[in-house]
Amino acid sequence: MAKKKGKTKRTIFVLDSSITLAWLFEDEADAYAEAVEDSLIAAAAVVPSLWLLEVANGALIGERRKRTTEAKITQFLALLKSLPITADEETAAQAWQETLQLARTHNLSVYDAAYLELAMRCGLPLATLDEDLADAAAAVGVEKYKP
């Protein structure tokens, strides 16, 4: 998304839920994930529509396992709402074709393949901590996001 008259171009990337959930759970703290979060001051992220459900489910599972609290999840979700993260509206339309084929070809879950499909379709780099997803992205020429 280009800005007018002398303003810099905002970097856009695909954000995986593995990065997002590392921001919530202290025991998953990761320097790369923190750098990705910090980059959202100047950059913007796009996510497949399932990201919202994955993040909510991951947070709930963490609460049930006593890794976090309802209050911390409420604060975390408020933070996410304030960040420049946009859900892709075409994720579902790709699910039974391109996404399913990527999952088959690269031995990924359909959920993980949705991130790869989005990055490929939009020509964007991918931020992920998932090694299998990162390997599949590299195999198809999707760049790793460099915050």
Write up this protein:
The chain is α/β, with parallel strands linked by helices and 147 residues long. It has a single domain, classed as Rossmann fold (3-Layer(aba) Sandwich), CATH 3.40.50.1010. The chain has seven helices and four strands; from the N terminus they run βααβααβααβα. It has helices at 17-24, 31-39, 50-64, 70-82, 91-106, 110-122, 131-139, and strands spanning 12-15, 44-48, 85-88, 126-127. The chain has a four-stranded parallel sheet. Residues 1-6 have low confidence and may be disordered.
Question: Outline of this structure?
Answer:
This protein is of the alpha/beta class and 147 residues long.
Tally of contiguous helical segments? 7
Shape: globular
Q: Structural class per helix/strand content?
A: alpha/beta
Report the end-to-end length measured between terminal Cα atoms.
17 Å
Beta strand %: 5-15%
Order of helices and strands: EHHEHHEHHEH
Write the layout of secondary structure elements.
Layout: E1 12-15, H1 17-24, H2 31-39, E2 44-48, H3 50-64, H4 70-82, E3 85-88, H5 91-106, H6 110-122, E4 126-127, H7 131-139
Parallel strand pairs: 1-2, 1-4, 2-3
Helix pairs in contact: 1-2, 1-3, 5-6
For this entry, give a set of tags.
alpha/beta, 7 helices, 147 residues, disordered N terminus, Rossmann fold, 4-stranded parallel beta sheet
